[in-house]
Amino acid sequence: MRELARAKVNLSLHVVGKRDDGFHLLDSIIVFPDVADELELVKKGFSISGPFGKGLPKTGNLVQRAAEFLGYEGGILLEKNLPVASGIGGGSADAAAALRLISRVTGQALPDGAALGADVPACLLSKPLRMQGVGERLTPLPPLPDFFILLVNAGAAVSTPRIFRALKNVNNPAGSELPQGLSTSGFFEFLATQRNDMQAAAIEACPTIADVLAALRALPDCALSRMSGSGGTCFGLFYSAQAAHAAATALKNARPDWWVVAARG
Questions:
Q1: 119 is annotated as an active-site residue
Q2: Does the pLDDT at position 60 exceed 90?
Q3: Which is the catalytic residue, given 8, 37, 80, 94?
Q4: Which of 3, 140, 193, 255 is 20 to 30 Å apart from 124, CA to CA?
């Protein structure tokens, strides 16, 4: 029994307030491209494989917490293909995949996952959403046009709490409602009017993010580039699979030390 844990990419991320308990209020458009960790149920134990397995703690991680939440005592193998602490919801996606997988095997009702983290409910759905509040308000987006995405990470882990603490303004305008029936060019034009309010603070904390964005902007067919989440993964948007994969090849050749993946958006 296997389950994919797709990356969560914030195409926009507006920080629109802060509650008295310290939680920030967000307004974000998120998608889940075909780039993922993978979980498999095994007889016993918890083990980690994959290119980023060494960066994940083997005790107390979100997969184990998800299993404990459902009282599951069997084993889980996590193939960690997504960078750790990279702004694409890897831990939350892993927890959500564990909940889906265990629920399917045991027949238990699928919980909303909010007790495991604010992003887990969205990752349980793993479809294009507008996410608002602290992650509890999830609105399915109208059907999106075809587009392709290039994800790039220079290898520097970024602390989300640190970036939130560094924000100079937490009361920014909310995002706009996504119109229905947009073409790919119309969708890209809409996204260009949106923001990531954490990008400036993340660049200040991790200047290599600016290098990644500059590299994306330099690609000839990249229609839009932006940082996802709190960083440090950035994305470029493309009209075709051919253009996205050609850009991935060029960037891998130029920066073989970076994580670079192209996928359907």
A1: yes
A2: no
A3: 8
A4: 193
